[in-house]
Amino acid sequence: xxxxxxxxxxxxxxxxxxxxxxxxxxxxxxxxxxxxxxxxxxxxxxxxxxxxxxxxxxxxxxxxxxxxxxxxxxxxxxxxxxxxxxxxxxxxxxxxxxxxxxxxxxxxxxxxxxxxxxxxxxxxxxxxxxxxxxxxxxxxxxxxxxxxxxxxxxxxxxxxxxxxxxx
Length: 167
Description:
The protein is about 20% helix and about 20% strand.
């Protein structure tokens, strides 16, 4: 049945194209709306009828729908907490303040935290694989030759100083 419909559709297009051998736009005014509806009816009826349409042979039924698994959301770190490579990062814009750990190897790891005017707040030059504390009051942090840095804990990692007792 579908083959006949496809052939009918091709015949309609050929009739509309005309008998010219040139590649020209077909004259669609020659095609009646009823002819197109008739040619496309089996396709539109099947689509509306669903899985239990007349296309199922007698004595059989369509298989039951199967449960499909939904894609699970993959947890990704927020941009401020995402692992960092060598480079310059603005604190609270590109990188979160807190404790970060280097996962590199070698003995030339350099990191520094600076103020907005370029003054160095803290720095270290030494073996990769250590940790750096990035204060929330800093402006920029620079990592060089340290490998990948991963976020460990926020500024609240360090407990507050004990309160002084008044005597």
